[in-house]
Amino acid sequence: MSTIKDVAKLAGVSHGTVSNVLKGFRGVSLDKVKKVEAAMRELGYQPDATARSLKTSKTMHVGVVLPNITDPCFSQLFTGIERVLRDNQYTASLYITSEVPANERKILRQIQRQRMDGIIIATCQPQNAGLFENLNQAGVKIVFVEREVENKDYSFVGFNNKSTIYNVTSQLFSKGYKSVALAVGPEEYSSERQCIDGYMEALRKLGIQANTKLIEITNLDKESSFKAAFRLLQLGEVPEVVIASSTQIAEGVAKAISICEDNLIKKPLLVSLSEDSWTNIDFPNILKLPRQAMMTGEMSAEMLLSHINSSAFFEARSVLLDNLPLDIRHDHAQPAPHWQAGNKGTLKVLMLGSSASYATYSLLTDFKRREGVNVEIDMLSYQELYNAIKDDKPLGNYDVYEVDIPWLPEFVERGILSGLNEFIDENSQSIKELIPGILDAYAKYDDRFYVLPYMYGTQLLYYRKDLFEDSKYQRLFYEQYHVELKPPKNWAEFNAIAKFFTKEYNPDSPTLYGTTLGGKNSSGAVCEFLPRKWAYGGRTFDDNGKVVLSSKETVKALNNYCESFKYASPTSPEHWWEEQIEEFSQGKAAMMMLFMSHATDITDRKKSKVVGKIGYDVVPGDNPLLGGWSLGINSNSSKKNLAFKFISWACCKELAIPYTILGGSTPCVNLYKNSELLSVYPWLNKALESFSISRKRVMPRSISELVISERQYEEVLGEAVYKAIKGQLTPQDAVNAAAAKFQALLDNNSI
């Protein structure tokens, strides 16, 4: 087997140089790095990770010990844990105890021998505090999940089951139920003891005598729960409700109920602690009490990392996450629609041809079931949609329009859109749980609402995380620029990194181009140029509406943008978002700036070669352009009430997650905190964070007191930028030409 000395000899360098290359030290010259890597490949040398970890004192390896992963609670816990550890360059190893203490002890010994940095564990022996104290003294950091160790101050993250079971038990009796049973796991587990305590406290406060026959202790598996359910169902008085403390228990109870169904006068209602999932549905005889299992996993991983990285100052703490609330109905009926069925007929809707509109189209059966009406959706390209809305208003061919947010002032002043204040006042649920501030940004003009937010979109920077974190490219970049390779914070850094990852300028680049670009006239050019212009301090109009475009800041921003095209594909001036996504997804470019609402395809394994390799950040300069779409009602529509029901449905929080999965991007804030979707679109939190720094295009009024059309603005600026990136005008001449046209617009409201 080859050694580090063999590598040094073959490469013609010192033992220390090889060691420095393996450790990723940046002081080694590129020539020596290449010689060492070539020697390692020739000898088949593999560095000993364990030996290196002894020197660095960290293995970057964590053990996760769970009873099973058949219970969705534990599988979601592990998903949350693994995501946080992976994002922090840690590896997670999963171990299953099957609720057997001997198995758990063996696993813990193995973890200690491997010198892992820490453990996250849902223990099956919480009374055995001495076992964990030995691990702690050996330097292994521990965080407990779901089950707390008794009489010891260890870090713990769990669920507030006591409060949940107390509330649901109280609700059930207040709704008229007379007999409520409880099925839980072993009492020595704090999670199960909480359920019993919550149940008993509710009975005490209601003055109800507890019946111990209505409390079943199971092994937390389907089989023992199935058997326990038969005991409940064979009581003289079958309980009206059975509360289960886990999905596994609920499944066993449900199977017993289905077998005994013919012998029951009335099937018991089954209420179960479960997992927070967008697929949770209220079935007539099963009500779920969602727990935030993924978030619990994420918090436990963050707590462990804090313990590992700040051991000397770390203080153990205990966190209980509140479970999500549920309203119990006595008749177990499905929830009623938001509105009763109105006028029958067909609604006609005009939308942009995009993944979002196809998502809405795919979900139309839900609206038809609620309202009993058909909906016809026509889809057009961006420019066609704008022209069609302007031309349709007097005809009233369509009831609903999809509107780009910069179009709102023009369409309101033209009388195209109907005001929505009265509808919103009467249907407050239509704006429930929207991103704070988005209603004002997307829907308001002159203190009135004319549309509802439909698709939220801000620009984000996407980059190849695998390349940015590769020690080889980090060394190469440092040697060239003497700074670390990391996501750019300004546009000068952006161009430097783009050049580094462009093969024409760097033969060692793994990608053809440093970035994708979409300079298509006019929308593409404007959307990618404005964040640069704003970051450099450029403005088009001042606060008094005066044209101030011809400034050194604007010219500098345009020079920067033109340089970027050196590091993109030659056809980029004619590209728009679809072409950018294609290039990035195929691994041709290292970076891409794009509206997050259009980026879903980069995580689709059928379309993308870079799934699992994507990083994301706010755009350089911290001035992203606020994009997105809204839905409004034609002022000449004869079906305004039904049209409002449609746009409320299309934008509602109930459809937020399926709509987003199918290709949309909801404005409802609950999406951006959903752990399941974050595992698919991990940039959602960053997108929500970017809302506060995103900027709108705001147009002044001309001498005729009409607001300048945003489309006119885009066409003027887009043409100038496009000619600059094509080399038809210098950046200075392009800016001057655009400034002159803007002045003409202000003077005459025409070009």
What does this entry show, briefly?
By secondary structure, the protein is α/β, with parallel strands linked by helices. The chain has 30 helices and 21 strands. Among the domains are: about 45 residues, 434 Repressor (Amino-terminal Domain); about 210 residues, Rossmann fold (3-Layer(aba) Sandwich); about 160 residues, D-Maltodextrin-Binding Protein, domain 2, CATH 3.40.190.10; about 90 residues, D-Maltodextrin-Binding Protein, domain 2, CATH 3.40.190.
**Shape call:** flat
Mean of all residue-level pLDDT scores: 87
Largest sheet entry: 8 strands, mixed
Counted beta strands: 21
Fraction of residues in H or I helices:
40-55%
- End-to-end distance: 77 Å
CATH topology of the domain at 58-213 and 277-328: Rossmann fold
Ranges where pLDDT stays below 50 over 5 or more residues in a row are: 49-56, 330-343
- Mind telling me the CATH superfamily name of the domain at 58-213 and 277-328? Response regulator
Could you characterize what this model shows?
With about 750 residues, the protein is of the alpha/beta class. Among the domains are: about 5-45, Orthogonal Bundle (434 Repressor (Amino-terminal Domain)), CATH 1.10.260; about 60-215 and about 275-330, Response regulator (Rossmann fold, 3-Layer(aba) Sandwich), CATH 3.40.50; about 345-455 and about 630-670, 3-Layer(aba) Sandwich (D-Maltodextrin-Binding Protein, domain 2), CATH 3.40.190; about 535-565 and about 700-750, D-Maltodextrin-Binding Protein, domain 2 (3-Layer(aba) Sandwich). It has 30 helices and 21 strands. The strands form four sheets. Strands 12, 13, 14, 17, 18, 19, 20 and 21 form an eight-stranded mixed β-sheet that branches. The N and C termini lie far apart (about 75 Å).
